[in-house]
């Protein structure tokens, strides 16, 4: 059998000039694989239609006197931007938006961190606590606003019934200028803190257990481990959460519009609500677009200030 195989091999070599033959290599062009672009193109088209085009058209609109009534659609140049920079309503509503951002962002970050630390201690029924803390975030804004409008309703609301049981006068949670914005901020904290809790919980689970075991061997207590291991390891995710929360709070609109519509006396009116009223109530779409891009520039600058320090820290 071996001699026969050798004779066949020798014959094949003589036919090919003594060289062994290998796998054939195609000499033509490689066919194009369209499977990847076929998956990407629909998302690119949707992004162009619903994101890129509105951004471009809104920017062009900000240089005109466009109105929903169809009258006075003329080129305005930079007059809309000049009016936006000198409009006292723009800066008043922006100040109230910043105030809301401050009084909501701080508790949202701190409470989310505390909740995550408590659950991560190994308390019984962790799945139940995680579900309970995150469930409120799944509720639509309309549901949250409707429920709390009834809770904080004057005289007949649940909150005023509690204060009456304590012998206190009705507070006027949503009807007094001094309390309305704080009340909405408290509702926002209850509603959205679950998202920050989820991010902190994921980061806590990523801390190596070996670091805690080594510190315990060195005699470190619970508080020492918290301030020397846990919090430093959460530094990067905390920066991300603060940046996301600042941007989300600056864009507040839904709960304010549905709970107070900017009242009382405009004390809770956000800048986005002013943009909405300018464009869809006063029909000045060109001016509303200019205010939007001024606000967009402010958010962009703020995003850079929150992003660059984190990049320097990573280097």
Automatic annotation (TrEMBL):
<keyword id="KW-0472">Membrane</keyword>
<dbReference type="GO" id="GO:0005886">
    <property type="term" value="C:plasma membrane"/>
</dbReference>
<dbReference type="InterPro" id="IPR000515">
    <property type="entry name" value="MetI-like"/>
</dbReference>
<feature type="domain" description="ABC transmembrane type-1">
    <location>
        <begin position="94"/>
        <end position="306"/>
    </location>
</feature>
<keyword id="KW-0812">Transmembrane</keyword>
<keyword id="KW-0813">Transport</keyword>
<feature type="transmembrane region" description="Helical">
    <location>
        <begin position="287"/>
        <end position="308"/>
    </location>
</feature>
<keyword id="KW-1133">Transmembrane helix</keyword>
<feature type="transmembrane region" description="Helical">
    <location>
        <begin position="180"/>
        <end position="204"/>
    </location>
</feature>
<feature type="transmembrane region" description="Helical">
    <location>
        <begin position="39"/>
        <end position="63"/>
    </location>
</feature>
<feature type="transmembrane region" description="Helical">
    <location>
        <begin position="98"/>
        <end position="119"/>
    </location>
</feature>
<feature type="transmembrane region" description="Helical">
    <location>
        <begin position="131"/>
        <end position="153"/>
    </location>
</feature>
<protein>
    <submittedName>
        <fullName>Sugar ABC transporter permease</fullName>
    </submittedName>
</protein>
<dbReference type="InterPro" id="IPR035906">
    <property type="entry name" value="MetI-like_sf"/>
</dbReference>
<keyword id="KW-1003">Cell membrane</keyword>
<feature type="region of interest" description="Disordered">
    <location>
        <begin position="1"/>
        <end position="29"/>
    </location>
</feature>
<comment type="similarity">
    <text>Belongs to the binding-protein-dependent transport system permease family.</text>
</comment>
<dbReference type="InterPro" id="IPR051393">
    <property type="entry name" value="ABC_transporter_permease"/>
</dbReference>
<dbReference type="Pfam" id="PF00528">
    <property type="entry name" value="BPD_transp_1"/>
</dbReference>
<feature type="transmembrane region" description="Helical">
    <location>
        <begin position="225"/>
        <end position="248"/>
    </location>
</feature>
<dbReference type="GO" id="GO:0055085">
    <property type="term" value="P:transmembrane transport"/>
</dbReference>
